[in-house]
């Protein structure tokens, strides 16, 4: 059985971001929400507070707090050209 190198790289990237989320300076509930958000958005989808609220069913305040944790940890980056307050997960090195 051959292993697809592209799939193996994607799996490693997913493990890297999940490890980084686990190291967040936040409580366990916040880490679980961050993992759920990553499951829904991956590296390619662009999101803001509204999308977080809709996808993981939290309040606007909780969505803002989650964004702040992720930004401060360098796990998301600002995306330009899609309106104010839009982000994307960053692949970890």
Molecular structure report:
The protein is mainly alpha-helical and 93 residues long. Helices cover 57% and strands 6% of the residues. It has four helices and two strands, in the order ααααββ. The chain has helices at residues 5-22, 28-41, 49-56, 60-72; strands spanning 76-78, 87-89. It has a two-stranded antiparallel ribbon with strand order 1-2. The model has no long low-confidence stretch (mean pLDDT 88).
Could you give the topology of this structure?
Blueprint: H1 5-22, H2 28-41, H3 49-56, H4 60-72, E1 76-78, E2 87-89
Antiparallel strand pairs: 1-2
Helix pairs in contact: 1-2, 3-4
Key words describing this protein structure:
93 residues, mainly alpha, two-stranded antiparallel sheet, 2 strands, 57% helix
Q: Which stretches are poorly predicted, pLDDT < 50 over at least 5 residues?
A: none
Give the N-to-C terminal Cα separation. 28 Å
Strand line-up in the sheet with most strands? 1-2
What form results from the Cα inertia axes? Answer: globular
Which strand-content bin applies to the residues? 5-15%
* Overall pLDDT score: 88
The number of helical runs is: 4
Helix share bin: 55-70%
The strand count comes to 2
Q: Rg to the nearest angstrom?
A: 14 Å
- Oligomeric state of this protein: single chain
The secondary-structure element order is HHHHEE
The main sheet comes to: 2 strands, antiparallel
> By helix and strand content, what is the structural category?
mainly alpha
């Amino acid at each position: 059985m051959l292993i697809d190198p592209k799939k193996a790289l994607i799996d490693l990237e997913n493990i890297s971001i999940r490890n980084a989320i686990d190291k967040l300076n936040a409580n366990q509930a916040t880490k679980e929400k961050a993992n759920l958000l990553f499951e829904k958005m991956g590296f390619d989808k662009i999101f803001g507070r509204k999308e977080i609220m809709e996808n993981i069913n939290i309040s606007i305040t909780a969505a803002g707090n989650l964004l702040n944790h992720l930004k401060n940890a360098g796990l998301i980056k600002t995306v330009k050209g899609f309106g104010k307050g839009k982000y994307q997960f960053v692949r970890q090195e």
